[in-house]
C-alpha cells in the first residue's frame, strides 16, 4: 500500500484504433471519429505505479482540460476522486491509480457496497443493413453476448432488421432499439411499437419520440408491452417520476454524475443502462460502476465491439451476457503498451468528413439524396419523411471522382434532392 503518492506527470497518448471491417462500413457514414482515443497515463513518485484512463475525443461527456492536468501534478491522486471536472480519461486514470496505490479494485472507491460480480453488457452498432445486423448478432453470440442494442432509423426497414437478427439468434437473445426521437410523436410511434411488441427478442425501446413530450411518453407506455427508456435528465427527473414518463434510463457521464443518477433512479426502482463508450479501458471502468449500482440492471452500452483492438493485454471475461468485475487493484486490467505504440496517432487528431452521397430508397421508387448524415437527421427530425416504412433502405455512393457524383453532391448542398427510379 502506498499512501503518500504524488503525481509526477500526466501524458496524453492519442491512438487511432481501427474499427472492425463490418463496423467500418456503417461507422464511416456518421461516427468515423470514434476510432480516435486519447489514453491518459499518469506516473507517480512511486516506481511502476501508473494509472490509465481513456477519452473518446469526438464522443465524450468531457475532454481532459489542460488546466486539470496542471492541477493534479504534484498532488495526491486521492484528492481528486469524484471530481468530474477532470474529464473522462484523467478521472478514470485517477481511479486506476488510487486503487493500485491502496491495493483495492476501483469499485471500492465509490463508497458503495458491491452488489454484483457480473455486470450485464450489450453489443452495440450504429444503423446497418439487415444482413450486417444479422452477422453482427452472430458474432455477438460467439463472443459471449446475449443482448444487442441497435439504432433504429427511418431510412431502414426496422421490421426486416429485427427479423434478420431473430433468424440467426436463439430465443433468449435480447434486442434493444434506439430511435433517437425519430418516430417524433406518439401517433407515429404507437403502431410501430405495437407491431414490434410481437417480436419475441425485442426487449426495450429507447427514446422513440421527442423526450420532452411528457404526455406522448405516458401514452406510449400504455400502448406497448415493452419498457421505454430515456436519457436521464430530459425531461427533468422530478417530472419523469411524478408523471410516470418512462420505465428506466440511459445513464452516463463522469463518475460523480453516474453515481448520483444511479442512486436517484434506484430510489424509485427504475433500472438503467450505463452508457460509457470506448475500448476495453472505458468498458472496464463502466463494469466497476455497475458493480455498486443496484439498478444498473439493463445491459451496459460501451461499444467496445466496434474496435479491432480493446487495448488490453487480456480481454474482459464476457459470458452469458455478463462481464466479470475485475478484482485486481485499480481498473484490474493491464493496458497493452504495444497497442498504444502501434496505433499512436500524430496531430491533428481528427479526420475529415467522408465525402459520400447517401440515398434513401423507398418502395415504389421514390429516392432522396443527401450530402451527409446531418442533413439526413435534420430532414427526418423535421418530419419531412416517413418515420418507419417497410422496404426502405439507405445506399452510399462514395466520391468516385466522376462528374455525375460531383453534380449530384453540389445539388444537395442546401437541400436534399428528390428523385425517382
Which features characterize this protein?
alpha/beta, 10-stranded mixed β-sheet, single chain, 421 residues, globular, TIM Barrel, 4-stranded antiparallel β-sheet, 17 strands
Average pLDDT, to the nearest integer?
A: 97
| Measured distance between first and last alpha carbons | 70 Å
Give the class-level CATH name of the largest domain.
Alpha Beta
Give unreliable regions as ranges: none
What's the CATH topology label of the largest domain? TIM Barrel
The shape is: globular
| Number of H- or I-type helical stretches | 13
Secondary structure class reads alpha/beta
Overall helicity: 25-40%
Rg result: 22 Å
Largest sheet: 10 strands, mixed
Describe this structure in words.
- By secondary structure, this protein is α/β, with parallel strands linked by helices.
- It folds into three domains: 7-104, Enolase-like, N-terminal domain (Enolase-like, domain 1); 118-336, Enolase-like C-terminal domain (TIM Barrel, Alpha-Beta Barrel); 356-420, no CATH class.
- It has helices at residues 21-30, 66-72, 88-102, 130-142, 158-167, 186-196, 214-223, 237-243, 255-267, 280-290, 337-342, 373-381, 403-411, and strands at residues 7-16, 36-44, 50-56, 118-125, 147-151, 174-178, 202-206, 228-231, 248-251, 272-274, 300-301, 318-319, 322-324, 356-361, 366-370, 393-398, 417-420.
- Strand 8, helix 8 and strand 9 form a beta-alpha-beta unit.
- Helix 4 (130-142) packs parallel to helix 5.
- The longest helix is centred in the N-terminal third of the chain and has 15 residues, at 88-102.
Amino acid at each position: 500500500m502506498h499512501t503518500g503518492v504524488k503525481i509526477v506527470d500526466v501524458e496524453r497518448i492519442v491512438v487511432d484504433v481501427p474499427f472492425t471491417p463490418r463496423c467500418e462500413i456503417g461507422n464511416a457514414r456518421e461516427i468515423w471519429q470514434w476510432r480516435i482515443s486519447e489514453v491518459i497515463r499518469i506516473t507517480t513518485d512511486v516506481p511502476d505505479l501508473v494509472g490509465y484512463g481513456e477519452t473518446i475525443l469526438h464522443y465524450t461527456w468531457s475532454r481532459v482540460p489542460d488546466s486539470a492536468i496542471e492541477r493534479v501534478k504534484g498532488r495526491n491522486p486521492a484528492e481528486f476522486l469524484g471530481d468530474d471536472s477532470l474529464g473522462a480519461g484523467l478521472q478514470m486514470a485517477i481511479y486506476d491509480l488510487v486503487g493500485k496505490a491502496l491495493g483495492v479494485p476501483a469499485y471500492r472507491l465509490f463508497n458503495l457496497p458491491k452488489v454484483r460480480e457480473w455486470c450485464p453488457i450489450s453489443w452495440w452498432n450504429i444503423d446497418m443493413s439487415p444482413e450486417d445486423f444479422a452477422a453482427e448478432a452472430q458474432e455477438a453470440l460467439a463472443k459471449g453476448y446475449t443482448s444487442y442494442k441497435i439504432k433504429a432509423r427511418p431510412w431502414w426497414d426496422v421490421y426486416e432488421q429485427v427479423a434478420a437478427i431473430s433468424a440467426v439468434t436463439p430465443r433468449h437473445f435480447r434486442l434493444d432499439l434506439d430511435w433517437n426521437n425519430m418516430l417524433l410523436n406518439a401517433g407515429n410511434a404507437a403502431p410501430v411499437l405495437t407491431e414490434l411488441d410481437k417480436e419475441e427478442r425485442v426487449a426495450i425501446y429507447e427514446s422513440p419520440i421527442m423526450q420532452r413530450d411528457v404526455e406522448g411518453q405516458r401514452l406510449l407506455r400504455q400502448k406497448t408491452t415493452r419498457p421505454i427508456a430515456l436519457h436521464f435528465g430530459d425531461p427533468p427527473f422530478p417530472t419523469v417520476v411524478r408523471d410516470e414518463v418512462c420505465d428506466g434510463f440511459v445513464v452516463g457521464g463522469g463518475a460523480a454524475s453516474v453515481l448520483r443518477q444511479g442512486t436517484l433512479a434506484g430510489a424509485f426502482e427504475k433500472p438503467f443502462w450505463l452508457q460509457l463508450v470506448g475500448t476495453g479501458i472505458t468498458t472496464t471502468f463502466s463494469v466497476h460502476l455497475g458493480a455498486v449500482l443496484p439498478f444498473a440492471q439493463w445491459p451496459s452500452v460501451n461499444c467496445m465491439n466496434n474496435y479491432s483492438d480493446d487495448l488490453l493485454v487480456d480481454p474482459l471475461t464476457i459470458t452469458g451476457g455478463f462481464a466479470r468485475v475485475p478484482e485486481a487493484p485499480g481498473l484490474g486490467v493491464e493496458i497493452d503498451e504495444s497497442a498504444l505504440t502501434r496505433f499512436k496517432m500524430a496531430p491533428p487528431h481528427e479526420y475529415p468528413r467522408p465525402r459520400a452521397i447517401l440515398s434513401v430508397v423507398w418502395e415504389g421508387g421514390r429516392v432522396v439524396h443527401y450530402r451527409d448524415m446531418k442533413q439526413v437527421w435534420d430532414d427526418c427530425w423535421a418530419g419531412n419523411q416517413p418515420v418507419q416504412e417497410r422496404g426502405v433502405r439507405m445506399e452510399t455512393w462514395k466520391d468516385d471522382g466522376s462528374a455525375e457524383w460531383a453534380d449530384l453532391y453540389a445539388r444537395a448542398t442546401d437541400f436534399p434532392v428528390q428523385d425517382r427510379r
